[in-house]
Structure formats: structure tokens, C-alpha cells
Design brief:
Elements: E1 2-4, E2 16-18, E3 36-38, H1 61-65, E4 69-71, E5 89-91, H2 104-108, E6 116-118, E7 125-127, E8 138-140, E9 145-149, E10 162-164, E11 169-172, E12 185-187, E13 192-195, E14 209-211, E15 216-219, E16 233-235, E17 240-243, E18 257-259, E19 264-269, E20 281-283, E21 288-292, E22 305-307, E23 314-316, E24 325-327, E25 331-333, E26 340-342, E27 347-350, E28 362-364, E29 369-373, E30 385-387, E31 392-396, E32 409-411, E33 416-420, E34 433-435, E35 440-443, E36 457-459, E37 464-467, E38 481-483, E39 488-492, E40 505-507, E41 512-514
Parallel strand pairs: 4-5, 5-6, 6-8, 7-9, 8-10, 9-11, 10-12, 11-13, 12-14, 13-15, 14-16, 15-17, 16-18, 17-19, 18-20, 19-21, 20-22, 22-26, 23-27, 26-28, 27-29, 28-30, 29-31, 30-32, 31-33, 32-34, 33-35, 34-36, 35-37, 36-38, 37-39, 38-40, 39-41
Antiparallel strand pairs: 1-2, 2-3, 24-25
Length: 524
């Protein structure tokens, strides 16, 4: 038995079951089509076999006319015959341009009832072909090489609900007279569209997803976008937008995802973001913001991903925890739900003490002016990535660092940490990357490091570590990079080092080691 079924993520229509098949379909007049039985909808069946990754032509015109849905994903052959006149759903994604008729637009006009068309990943090139006579609801032309002016796609498509032109070479400006009153999803990302985002987009009042990232749009972010009251996903990242963020974007009360990264936005981040109580993802990185207004994140209780790196923000943590930390001494952030926090490459200063109580999985604060000690409050059993490099942190590493029991990456490079590396650090057996380069660590290598069986990078260079290179280093069989340079190590180079299986870099220079370098390195 085989199925005619919709592609993943596409809306389901009535499916048809092909029974009594041997799974060895000939190219023409497939005999198993003699037994058609209505079946269930897409959501009620498991993944069908891949036997329909082939060119199926029905034995009779009557059967062809009965089709409503056909998925021939990656068929690598000819598309279906125009006899499929009543076809409503057609998925030909993942095929090659050479497999289609030369006059593809004329061929498509035969499918007069077509509502869903997916030609993504078909290596189509050149100018877009006319499709305006089709009653389309869903159109996907993703990941092709189409170019030129795509503006006519936006015309005379009053029924269109889903339009995705992602990852092509379309360019030019979007026409002013766009009229797509039914559109809920618009993805123009990874193209060469430019100019202003015109007010016509604001007339698409049913839009839920607006994705314009990775283009050349410029000017200010249109104020009229605030009229898209149904919008839940807004991506304007990697364009050339300038000026400030319109304060009335806070009127988009249904917004869950907002990406304004990699533009030329500047000034203050407006406090009118406060009403965005459903926001889960906020990326303002790689802009030129200098300050944030009071109560910016006060009501963002669902925020899980906050990325504000590579700006010009200043940050001073208050000693008062309420529970919030403070930007520029005045901005409370209620971050109890945040899992991913990236504030790297800014001008933040002060202590990191107030981060207590958060359930962070990823914390990235490198490239700031943070100072003070590494406190136990920053550690949590959920944290996977902790990057505090290139700051002015000092003092000894506390034994409580072991509370980060799930840590995979620890980077405290380029600070002023001193004292001995605590033995308790060996309790973080999940650690794969350890960067402590360019600090003032002293004492010997803790023997507990031998339990780092997953460790791939051990970077302890530019410190004051003393003693011998221990022979237990042979147990760290996953090590790829070992940097112990510029320390105070002495004695013989252990003969066990050549037993490491996969080393790529070994730097033990600028120490007081003696003897000859072993020549039998098996992994190099």
C-alpha cells in the first residue's frame, strides 16, 4: 500500500490510498491505480513509504481528474501530466530544472484548480514565470536561482495566504500597489530586495509572519508596521535600516519573535517594548544602540532568548536585587524565564553578582568591562555555555564552580583570575571546552582534570601554573587542542603524551621543561 500525501508542514487535504501495489511502479499506466479508496487526513497517518518518489501517470483520465493532492518530492523525473486538471495541491520540491517542461508557465496554466504549489529547491533560474491566473493559496519558490522583478507575484493574488520566495536572487523594490488581503505568511529573506519597506505591507492586515531578513532594505523601520495586529513573527535582520526603533512596535501585542539585528539602528531602546508580554525571542545585536529606557523588560516574563551583543550599551549592575539587574543604573530586567543571554561586546561594567536566581542555559558576556569576583550565584546545574572572557574579573575561582554540573563550554580567558584552580572543577565531567588563557592562575594542574573524558580543548596558556605535566593526561583521549604555553611547568615531557589519539595542536612552549620531545606521536 502507498499514499499520496502532503509534504511536511503543508496543510492536509483528503488523501487517497493506493492499494494492491507491488512498489515497482512502471513510468506509465500504473496498474495499481485501479483501486482508489478515500482515506484519512494527513494528521492521522504515519510517515508513508517513499515509493511515490517517482513519476506516476494514472491509467485513465477519470482517475487523473479525481486527484486533489499530489506530492512528488525529489522525483528526479518528469512532472505529472496536465490531465490532472482538478489537482489542488502540487509539491514538486527538490527536483531539477531539467525535469520540467521548457515552457513551465504554460504548463502550469493547465492546473486551473491549483491552490498549493511548492517548487522550492528545484534549481529554477532566470525571471519568474507568470502564475497570476491560478487560484493559489500557498506558493513556495524557496532555494532556487530566480532573479529579476518579482513584484507581479504580489498582484492579483487576493486568495494567497502563504508566500515564500526565500533564498533566491530577486531584487528591486516592492511595488506600492500591493494587494494581498489574505496573506498570513510572507518570507522574502535571503534575496536582494532593496529600498524602503513600503506602506503597502502594512495593508496586509492578516499577516502573522513577516520575514524580510538578509536583504538591502533601508531607511527607517516603518511606523505603520504597528498596524499588523496579528503579527507574531517579525524578522528585519541584516538589512540597512537606520534611525531608532519606532516606539509603537510595542503595540504588536501578539509578537513572539523579533529580530532587528545587523542593521544601523541607534539611539535608545524604547520602553514601549514593555507591552510585548508574549515575546520569547529578542535580537538587537550588531547595531549602535547606546542606552535603554526605564522598565524596558519589566513585563517580558516569557522572554527566553535575549541577544544585545555588539552595540554601545553601558551596563552597571546594581547591588540591589529585586530580582533584577540594571542597565545604566536604571533599567530593571525581569529575566526569570531567560535561557539564552548574550550581552557581549558592549561597554557593560560592574559586578555580575545580581544574576542569581536565573535559569540560564547560555550566558555570554565577553568583551565588556565587568569587574569583581566570580561568585557562586552565577552557577546553575542547567548552564551549558558560560563565556566571561575579555573582562576585568578577578579573585580566585570558587569551588562552587562545580555547581555548573552540565557545563560544556567554560571560557574565562583574558581576565585577572588568580589562585589555584579548584579541585572541585573535576566534578563537571560534561566539560568539552576549557579556556583559561591569559590569567594569573598558579599552583599545579588539579588531578581532578583526569575525569574530563569529553574534553576536546584544554587551554591554560599564559598563566603561572607550576609543577609537572601529569602522566594522567593520557586518559583525556578526546583532546584535540592542548595549550600549556607560557607557564612555569618543569621536568620531563611525559612519555604518555604520544598515547593521545587525536591531538591537532600541542603547545608547551615557554616553560622550563627538559629532555627530548617524544617522536612517536600516533595521533599527529
Amino acid at each position: 500500500m502507498a499514499w499520496i500525501y502532503p509534504a511536511p508542514g503543508k496543510s492536509g487535504s483528503l488523501l487517497y490510498r493506493l492499494s494492491d501495489c507491488s512498489y515497482s511502479f512502471p513510468w506509465f499506466n500504473v496498474p495499481c491505480f485501479r483501486s482508489f479508496q478515500p482515506s484519512s487526513t494527513a494528521g492521522e497517518i504515519s510517515q508513508p513509504p517513499s515509493v511515490l518518489r517517482a513519476f506516476l501517470v494514472p491509467a485513465t483520465d477519470e482517475i487523473a481528474k479525481s486527484y486533489s493532492l499530489l506530492n512528488l518530492f525529489s522525483l528526479r523525473c518528469c512532472p505529472p501530466n496536465p490531465k490532472f486538471g482538478s489537482l489542488r495541491h502540487l509539491d514538486l520540491s527538490g527536483n531539477e530544472k531539467r525535469d520540467f517542461p521548457e515552457q513551465i508557465s504554460t504548463w502550469l496554466q493547465n492546473f486551473t484548480a491549483l491552490q498549493m504549489l511548492d517548487l522550492s529547491g528545484c534549481t529554477l533560474s532566470g525571471n519568474i514565470f507568470p502564475i497570476w491566473n491560478l487560484p493559489l493559496r500557498n506558493l513556495s519558490l524557496d532555494s532556487n536561482h530566480l532573479s529579476g522583478d518579482a513584484s507581479f507575484i504580489f498582484c492579483n493574488q487576493s486568495l494567497l495566504s502563504w508566500l515564500s520566495l526565500m533564498d533566491n536572487n530577486f531584487g528591486g523594490m516592492i511595488l506600492v500597489n500591493i494587494s494581498l488581503p489574505s496573506l498570513t505568511h510572507l518570507d522574502l529573506s535571503f534575496n536582494n530586495f532593496g529600498g524602503l519597506v513600503l506602506e503597502s505591507i502594512a495593508r496586509m492586515v492578516k499577516l502573522q509572519h513577516l520575514i524580510l531578513g538578509y536583504n538591502n532594505f533601508s531607511g527607517q523601520i516603518p511606523i505603520l508596521l504597528s498596524q499588523l495586529s496579528s503579527l507574531s513573527f517579525l524578522d528585519l535582520g541584516l538589512n540597512q535600516f537606520s534611525g531608532g526603533i519606532p516606539s509603537n512596535l510595542g503595540d504588536l501585542s501578539n509578537l513572539q519573535y523579533l529580530d532587528l539585528s545587523k542593521n544601523q539602528l541607534n539611539g535608545s531602546i524604547p520602553s514601549r517594548f514593555t507591552p510585548l508580554s508574549r515575546l520569547e525571542y529578542l535580537d538587537l545585536s550588531f547595531n549602535m544602540f547606546t542606552s535603554a529606557e526605564l522598565e524596558l523588560f519589566e513585563n517580558l516574563t516569557r522572554l527566553q532568548f535575549l541577544i544585545m551583543s555588539n552595540n554601545k550599551l553601558t551596563l552597571n549592575f546594581s547591588s540591589i536585587w529585586n530580582p533584577s539587574f540594571w542597565l545604566q543604573g536604571a533599567l530593571p530586567l525581569l529575566l526569570s524565564a531567560v535561557e539564552y543571554l548574550d550581552l557581549s561586546d558592549n561597554f557593560f561594567s560592574g559586578s555580575i553578582l545580581p544574576l542569581v536566581g536565573l535559569n540560564l542555559i547560555t550566558l555570554i558576556l565577553f568583551g565588556n568591562n565587568l569587574s569583581g569576583a566570580f561568585t557562586s550565584s552565577i552557577c546553575s546545574p542547567y548552564m551549558d555555555i558560560l563565556d566571561l572572557s575579555s573582562n576585568k574579573l578577578s579573585g580566585s575561582l570558587p569551588p562552587s564552580l562545580a555547581n555548573c554540573s552540565s557545563l560544556g563550554v567554560l571560557n574565562i580567558t583574558n581576565n585577572d583570575f588568580d589562585g589555584e584552580i579548584p579541585q572541585d572543577i573535576g566534578n563537571i565531567t560534561s566539560l568539552g571546552v576549557l579556556h583559561m588563557n591569559d590569567n594569573k592562575q598558579r599552583g599545579s594542574l588539579p588531578s581532578s582534570l583526569r575525569y574530563y573524558i569529553s574534553l576536546k580543548i584544554l587551554d591554560l596558556g599564559n598563566n603561572g601554573i607550576e609543577g609537572h605535566i601529569p602522566n594522567w593526561i593520557k586518559y583525556l583521549q578526546q583532546l584535540r587542542i592542548i595549550n600549556l604555553s607560557f607557564n612555569k611547568l618543569r621536568g620531563m615531557i611525559p612519555s604518555e603524551i604520544p598515547q593521545l589519539q587525536n591531538p591537532q595542536i600541542l603547545d608547551i612552549s615557554k616553560n622550563s621543561l627538559t629532555g627530548e620531545l617524544p617522536t612517536n606521536f600516533s595521533g599527529f
